[in-house]
Every structure is written in C-alpha cells, then in structure tokens.
Amino acid sequence: MAVRGAFAPNVTWGQPVGVVNARFLVDAERWGLRYLCADCAHVGGDGRCSLGFPNERLWQQPFAAVDGQGVPQFCRCFEPDEG
C-alpha cells in the first residue's frame, strides 16, 4: 500500500468511492452547491482558468467528488461567480 501525503487525504471514511460520489451529487443538488468551473469567477469565456489551473476534470460529467483513491477533486481556488 502506498503512503499518502498530507496533501492527499482519503475522505471516503471507508465508503466505496462510487457511493461517496453519488451521495455528493444528491447533496449538491439538494443544497444548490456550486462547485464546477462553469460557476467560477476565475473562468473566462473560453473555459480556461485565469489562474492557470488545469480544469479538464472539473468539466467532466458526472462530476467525481473523489477519485479512485478517495482524494477530493475540487479546485482550491474556486470562487462563485456572482455576476
């Protein structure tokens, strides 16, 4: 088993990744959570991040809140676009 760094926590708390991702999508819909690049103030009209972060995985549907190892897949610089 590989050693996990502090920057890559497993946030599944023992649940299967598919269950965690499905629950996230249900909760996001229920609470109106905005988390995708399309809702971010840092994304321009061309879909690119003005901060230069790669964001291809954040455009994929359905969104995966955690990857296969349980590591969160959110952008740490997300800011809701209020305009």
What does this structure look like?
The protein has one domain. It has helices at 17-31, 56-59. The mean pLDDT is 84. With 83 residues, the protein is mostly helical. The chain has 2 helices and no strands.
Low-confidence stretches: none
Write down the secondary-structure element order: HH
Shape: globular
Whole-number radius of gyration?
A: 14 Å
Main sheet properties:
none
Summarize the entry for a quick read.
With 83 residues, the protein is mostly helical. The protein is built from two helices and no strands.
Write a concise keyword list for the protein shown above.
83 residues; mainly alpha
Layout of strands and helices, then pairs:
Blueprint: H1 17-31, H2 56-59
